[in-house]
Design brief:
By secondary structure, the chain is mainly beta. It has a single domain, classed as YerB-like (YerB-like fold, 3-Layer(bba) Sandwich), CATH 3.50.90.10. Helix content is about 10%, strand content about 30%. It contains five helices and 26 strands. Strands 1, 3, 4, 5, 6, 10, 18, 21, 22, 23 and 25 form an eleven-stranded mixed sheet that branches. Strands 11, 12, 13, 14, 17 and 26 form a six-stranded antiparallel sheet that branches. Strand 21 and strand 22 form a beta hairpin. The longest helix has 19 residues.
Length: about 375
């Protein structure tokens, strides 16, 4: 018997044959191939470290919004309201005025006949009524033009009106028939032009928005420059002209300076309420040249102004019962006045309203005591 040797069977071929046989059997029986299972990995997965709640990052503090002309926290929903400058009379016939304690800024100027008038700026508060309102003067525009806001007055000479209308402010005039103005019956003309300021703001162009901050304010009165490095002061006395002798007395109880007209208390009304003494948190004294202009008033009296544009000078800042010397400077008409200390750093004001006493360099004077 002859035996035929086929040679050794190769393992790969055997594995292939067995696989084919298995598939054939599965096809015949309808079975399925069980899924292959894998052995779980025993490696360790690193978890993120836990954070101690007491060591969370300190949140950034929220700085409250403040009114740009007072540094006081904003309340209400009108933070973007434009500033409103109003020319207010200050003769004996005009007192007590309406709304002055609600102004953010008040400039006291000497006009013709040595009379004092106010350029009062409102933004953070809306008085129910303002007055008596009088005519525009040349010094008003360099003072309020940097606000890029609204300017209200009773009227004025054609040449001075042209200056006002080219100042960049939105002008409102009683003489033009604007409905926001009216005369009251309790006083004779011309001391009886008044306005509801809400009616003026209602006519503001949409482009008119809140002004940029003028002065640097501390978070509290204790941070004011006068409080930090000033001299204790009880009274600020001014001789602005032959007839204008205002003064301010420090009142620690209210934390404000109280205004006097000569020996009498300077009073104001607030929306028809009882009279109250005019007060200020800051009183800024500005000494500036006070030349006559080409304009003339009654009896050919010269109309003066103050030299503020491209000028500088000395002054005093009073806050918190103390005073400190300052320097002032101003560039273009629509640039705000810059107030610094002797070393050139910005003067810091206490949060609150400010009165600015414009002292004629040639004829005026003031006393700090």
């Amino acid at each position: 018997m002859t035996t035929t040797r086929l040679g050794p069977v190769r393992r790969p071929m055997l594995v292939a044959l067995l696989g084919a046989l298995t598939l054939a059997l599965a096809a015949c029986t309808g079975g399925t191939t069980p899924p292959t299972t894998s052995t779980p990995s025993t490696s360790t997965v690193a978890l993120p470290p836990t954070v101690d709640p007491s060591k969370q990052p300190v949140p950034t503090p929220t700085v409250p919004s403040v009114w740009p002309l007072t540094g006081m926290p904003v309340t209400g929903t009108a933070a973007n309201r434009p500033a409103l400058a109003v020319k207010i009379e200050n003769t004996a016939e005009a007192r007590p005025q309406e709304g002055l304690n609600e102004a953010d800024l008040v400039w006291e100027n000497i006009v013709e006949f040595d009379v004092s008038r106010f350029n009062a700026v409102f933004q953070s508060q809306v008085p129910g009524e303002i007055g008596p309102i009088r005519s525009v003067r040349p010094m008003d525009m360099p003072e309020s033009a940097p606000l890029h806001g609204l300017f209200a007055y009773s009227g004025g000479q054609p040449g001075i009106l042209a200056l006002a209308q080219s100042s960049g402010e939105q002008n409102f005039s009683f003489d033009s028939g604007n409905s926001a103005f009216y005369r009251i019956k309790a006083r004779p003309a011309p001391h009886n032009v008044y306005s509801h300021p809400a009616d003026i703001w209602a006519q503001a162009d949409p482009s008119r928005v809140a002004p940029k901050p003028w002065f640097q304010f501390g978070r509290s009165a204790a941070q004011a420059s006068a409080m930090v490095a000033g001299t204790p002061t009880n009274v600020l006395s001014f001789k602005l002209s032959a007839y204008a002798h205002p003064s301010w007395t420090w009142d620690a109880t209210s934390g404000t300076w109280l205004r006097f007209e000569g020996p009498a208390k300077a009073m104001t009304q607030t929306s028809g309420a009882a009279e109250s003494q005019i007060h200020a948190v800051n009183v800024l004294t500005i000494v500036a040249s006070h030349p006559n202009t080409q304009f003339r008033a009654q009896n050919n009296a010269p109309v003066p102004t103050y030299t503020l544009v491209n000028a500088s000078g000395d002054g005093v800042l009073a806050s918190g019962g103390k005073t400190i010397p300052v320097k002032w400077s101003k560039g273009a008409q629509d640039a705000p006045m810059v107030v610094t200390l002797a070393d050139g750093t910005p003067a810091v004001f206490a949060p609150g309203n400010t009165w600015i006493e414009m002292v004629p360099k040639e004829t005026g004077s003031y006393t700090v005591g």
